[in-house]
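seq:
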Amino acid sequence: MKVLIGMEESATIRQEFEKTGHDAWSCDLLPSRVPGQHLQCDIWDVLDKGWDLMILHPDCTCLSVSGNRHYARGRAGWFKRYKALKWTYGLWCHSLMTCPKVCLEQPVSVLASHPGMPKAHYIQPWEFGHGETKNTALFLHGLPPLQPTNIVSGRENRVWKMGPSPTRKRDRSKTYQGVASAMAEQWGCISTNNIIYRSN
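struct:
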């Protein structure tokens, strides 16, 4: 498959799809931390390039419910949230028109209450081999829910506890390796539970 990992500069998911033989590309305004098939540009410039699968990670700063004290209606950042919601929903809608399989990832977000979005499928790192908590929403089109691969003990909230640093935002947003592997295995035309998921 031709796979686009949107708003990813860590190359975590891209590399997992490459391992399974797919033509995978990451895209971000920043250069990739790992050399390879990376498009350093605006995501909108590459949406219409004939992808079979898109996994999108739009910025969640204004959309996360943990930021309600700054971005809720009546707060100083409300207009920023409004613009972010409009942009992200537009990204979702456009992606559905150009690609048969789409995943859009967010934390617990106000996007989940948007009437045009499907019901969110939530996953946790501890379901994929990481003894940590980070409730993550996956909005899916043409894809099955991601199934746990390695449920482990431990419920450390490591991401929430990260101290201030120049790379804090980048480090908090990096996809867990176990989750990336599950995406490649379960969504990459790989047989799972005797079912093969293929592009239309």
